[in-house]
Design brief:
This protein has a single domain, classed as 4-Layer Sandwich (Glutamine Phosphoribosylpyrophosphate, subunit 1, domain 1), CATH 3.60.20.30. A hairpin with a 4-residue loop joins strand 2 and strand 3. 34% of the residues lie in helices and 23% in strands.
Length: 304
Amino acid sequence: MKRIAIAIHGGASQDSDFIRQNKTGYEEGLKAAVQAGYAVLQKGGSAIDAVERAVNCLEDNPLFNAGRGSALNNQGKVEMDAAIMDGENLKAGAVAMVKSVKNPISLAKKVLEKTSHVLLCGYGALKLAKEAGIVLEEDQYFITGHQLDEFKQANLEETGDILLKKQVHGTVGAVALDEYGNIAAATSTGGTPNSLPGRVGDSCMIGAGCYADNRTCAISATGDGEYIITGVIANTISLYTELTGKNLQEACDYVIKERNKDTPGDMGVISINKNGEIGITFNCERMHRAWIDTNGNMEARIYK
């Protein structure tokens, strides 16, 4: 039997009343998404298609901060980022500051497949979405009651520099190994609540929030995007495994909990390699995650 495996995440940060009240819904959403991606692999599908499918499920779920459940910036608008990368050929596609796109990860995949670019932003990404037949939605589709409440509360409390405020972060992502021995990664986000318009996070940045290389591993990151960008987190984990020979879990733990132990931000990662080893770690109160290993065993967790 050929090895297949998949892991997903639904964001890492501090805990909240909303998360505790919706714990069952989050767990069910994680299970549905990881099973959807795994079903692609079971049918002989590619890792790149599997991570897209898993992330689509999370983007369609209003509980998660991506797609339908995206955060609102300080103008009450949605701006989404996403990236996807194929470990077989190191090809990647990403989009930033997109609006109206139901599933940003699928648009990122179109950038990978249909263009010679890696990252498209704003109106250019939207133009490609229309040309490629990507499903679009009206603005109201993306505004959930929870995110609207978060926006209103943030504006009531706003004092001083918005960029210095503690935020509840949210991102979704997936990594997978297919039966052909290829790995892939995907990351999608609705951004940081109450951020400045035009803010772009780590999710669409190859090497920061998303990376895949068959020679090392595939990684999807979540947490404080600015620190994930400056720490080049995903690529650092990949290089650490390559240069030290450490296993994947050791690499994830070292980069997040040791190398960045003095970084004042929340971070979490999921990862996978060609052997089907899965590495997951985070330095904060919770990380929504689920995985199905090479033996077909599934787990879904939120807390440590």
